[in-house]
Amino acid sequence: MFEIKVYAQSLGCPKNLVDTENILGALGNCWTPAQNLQKASLVLINTCAFIRPAVEESLDTIFDIAQDIQNSSPRPLLVVTGCLVSRYGPGLGREIREADMLVSLREQKDLPRKILDHFGLPQEKLPDFPRALNASARPHAYLKISEGCNNRCAFCTIPSIRGRLRSRPVQELLDEAACLVDGGVSEIVLVSQNSTAYGLDLGYRRGLGKLAARLARLQGLNWLRIMYLYPAGLDTKLLESLADLGPPFVPYFDVPLQHAHPDILRLMGRAFKQDPMQVIERIRKFFSDAAIRTTLITGYPGEEEKHFRTQLNFVRQARLQHLGVFPYYPEEGTRAAGFSGQLPAEVKNRRRRLIMQEQKKISREYLKGFVDQDLEVLVEEPHPEWPGLFTGRTWFQAPQVDGITYISGPDMKSGQMVTARIRNSLDYDLQALV
User: What is the pLDDT of residues 12-43, one digit of tens each?
Assistant: First the structure.
């Protein structure tokens, strides 16, 4: 039987990765991974378009791959889907003539059938959750608990791309999580645009806390992590419910604050406009050892030096374990793109560098405190260049966005949860031995 050899590239956030896994899984047993472009009969590119660099990366990827396959015989089917298509609509076809299919997020549910029809293959009867589970062969998996967002931040393109909040029912998520764990996943990471809003559209009260409590009972699950906790929803009741869970819940809090000055938060249209230290202190009241991550934007329209100094002082005072900082991009279609007080790129980037210089010191000092301690490490994959060396993560290192732990020891393999002695710390990474 003919098998579709698929070369898939998923750009952007973990939510896109879940979409890619769903598309591939819905192809059933009709596909296998292609080792490279030259052996592919289908090239699937799932794009990101959240900010300008993501748009540029998506376009560069499409055009580079299209050039690489243009002389292939037979030429593989080139399918482009995801946020780029949804953001720019049908007119994108005039710009990307190389693509055989341009598929929006809304149309993704029909994409597997279109691919199978193209290759003359019948659709199979699939299980309830036909994700290409763990296609990356790593022991963590993302569970997308909702889609879209009801917030209307002035700088953000997500609601226009992915629509309003649409939460998935609890039982559906429990069933999918059970499939993930049965398939060998050690860590489940909950993702969405706004996890603290989970269930509001379904009429759930305290939806996220109740979902986390149900997931925490899964046998065989080592770690449960929640990403994208919008600060306005991270209240005392939610923190109390999470504090009651214990393992496998890990006290890791990804709270996208975006700024530290109330004037700028108001200009951003954030539902949360108070002093962000209130959120940090609230978390630490319930979890004294919490690992906290946030993202900040520098050079937002109207950001004066005093606003930036408040931001910098917040970083010094809060001493968060993980921090991502991005210069502001005036995204087409957002309210903020038309605001007065737009700042030059050199100001945005200088402010970003100053914040990251402070964060590097904070991270270095934090990690140094773990040297000579024994920590649990989830072994991810062999290092591509050093035989016997693996990359892994501790509970306070989330996949893809934080530092990693380099680890070595006898008879190690991907997916193991091992106790390792931390031997050295770097700016953002650890080194350990079993």
Answer: 999 999 999 999 999 999 999 998 999 999 99
Kindly report the number of other CB atoms within 10 A of residue 278's CB atom: 11
Q: How far is CA 51 from the centre of its chain?
A: 15
Same domain, 47 and 148: no
CB 185 within 8 A of CB 141: yes
| 174 and 31 within one domain | no
Whether residue 286 is contained in a domain is answered as yes
Token couple for 298: 């520098």
**Measuring CA to CA, which residue among 83, 212, 232 is closest to residue 152?**
232
pTM of the model: 0.94
Domain, as residue range, for 48: 4-118
d(CA 23, CA 11) in angstroms, rounded, equals 14
pLDDT tens track for 165-218: 999 999 999 999 999 999 889 999 999 999 999 999 999 989 999 999 999 999
Distance, in Å, from the CA atom of 283 to the CA atom of 310, rounded to the nearest integer, reads 21
Query: Is the link from the previous residue into 248 a cis peptide, with omega within 30 of 0?
Result: yes
- Are 144 and 192 in contact by the 8 Å Cβ rule? The answer is yes
Query: Is the same domain home to 170 and 193?
Result: yes
Helix (H) or strand (E) holding 284: helix 276-286
CATH number at residue 113: 3.40.50.12160
DSSP assigned state of 12: S
Q: Do 285 and 379 share a domain, yes or no?
A: no
